[in-house]
Amino acid sequence: PIYFYNKGEPYYELTNFWVDEQPVVIDGKEWKTTEHYFQASKYAHDPVRMEQVRQLKSPRETFAYVRVADNKAARRQDWQDVKDDVMLHAIRHKFSQNERLKTLLLKTFPRPLVEHTDKDSYWADGGDGTGKNKL
C-alpha cells in the first residue's frame, strides 16, 4: 500500500490539505484546496457561509471553522447522506484538472492508497488499519 497523510512526506499531494499553485475549479469557482470545497459544501444552502469558507487562507482554517458551535448547527441536514458524493466530486475535479497530480495518482496503480492517521477513522485508516479509509 501507499500510505500518505503528513506534510513533507511522499504523496502528501493526495490529501485534501494539499495547496497547489493551480487552484481547483469546482462548480465554476476556484478553491484553494479540496478541503475548502468539502467543508464549504456543508453550507450549500447558505451562500454566505459557503463563501466565507472558500475565502479562508488554509485548509486547517476550514476544518476549524466548521467546528465552531454556530457553524456546526448551521450545517445542512442531509450532510451524512451526501458527504461521500461531495468528496468524490471534489477529488475528481482535483485530479482531472491538474496533469501533475493526475500523473502522480496514476503512477500509484495498482497499489491501494491509505490515508494513514489516527485522527480519522472514516476518511482514513484510523492509524491502526481499522478505519474505513473512504478517501
TrEMBL record:
Pfam families: NADAR (PF08719). It comes from the Eukaryota. Residues 3-135 form the NADAR domain. NCBIfam families: ribofla_fusion. This is NADAR domain-containing protein.
